[in-house]
Design brief:
Elements: E1 6-10, H1 15-32, E2 37-41, H2 54-62, E3 67-69, H3 80-85, E4 106-111, E5 114-119, H4 134-145, E6 151-154, E7 165-168, E8 180-183, E9 195-198
């Protein structure tokens, strides 16, 4: 039986109140659930409720986040471009943005001999950005990651339905969110939000 992993996901953390709530509860929840990884969508964490700054990325990491994801508001704070250009991999932009955009859309996280890949994608329905198809991007990235990770996780931004949930590899327990978990090989065309794939 594969080692169980637990992923704690938060999002969207919005504005100062969202950051204060995250700071108060996230470290305790990570400890309470003995989470291996904590991922947070921080694209709306600026005081204005839109965008993220390098200082806020550091804030999330200081409070236990292993990775910060984003979506269409990633560019609302222009200073984030410098953060990406310094080759930081603690913040992901959507992988299906044009390849010329700064930053990366995928990251590898490892703990206790288990490596997970996180693919950050953005849907296209009701969105103004001209993006690549998230399903085709996921198919391509899953092929690339097949020999690099034990699990692939994608907290996909599509309809603004981010909620707190915890995923185990063999046992699936949810708090408020629909989730699909399946083993490869599979087509990315069956993606739900979020998705954890065993390779």
């Amino acid at each position: 039986m594969a080692k169980q992993i637990k992923i704690l996901m938060f999002g969207d953390v919005v504005g100062e109140l969202g950051c204060a709530t995250f700071q108060k509860h996230a470290p305790k929840l990570k400890k309470q659930f003995d989470a291996d990884f904590m991922i947070v969508n921080g694209e709306n964490s600026c005081a204005t409720g839109r965008g993220i700054s390098p200082k806020l990325v550091a804030f999330f990491k200081h409070n236990g986040a292993d990775l910060v994801t984003s979506g269409n508001h990633i560019w609302a704070s222009k200073e984030i471009v410098d953060h990406f250009e310094q080759q930081n991999v603690d913040l992901l932009r959507p992988a299906n943005f044009p390849s010329e955009c700064p930053g990366k859309g995928v990251a590898l996280l490892a703990k206790d001999g288990v490596t997970i890949a996180v693919i950050n994608l953005q849907g296209r329905v009701f969105m103004k950005e001209l993006l690549d198809c998230p399903f085709k991007a996921a198919d391509s990235l899953m092929s690339y990651l097949k020999n690099k990770a034990d699990w692939i996780f994608t907290p996909r931004l599509a309809r603004k339905k981010w909620v707190l949930h915890i995923i185990w590899t063999d046992v699936l327990q949810l708090l408020l969110a629909p989730t699909l978990m399946c083993k490869l090989p599979m087509s990315a065309s069956c993606l739900a939000e979020p998705l954890l794939l065993r390779i």
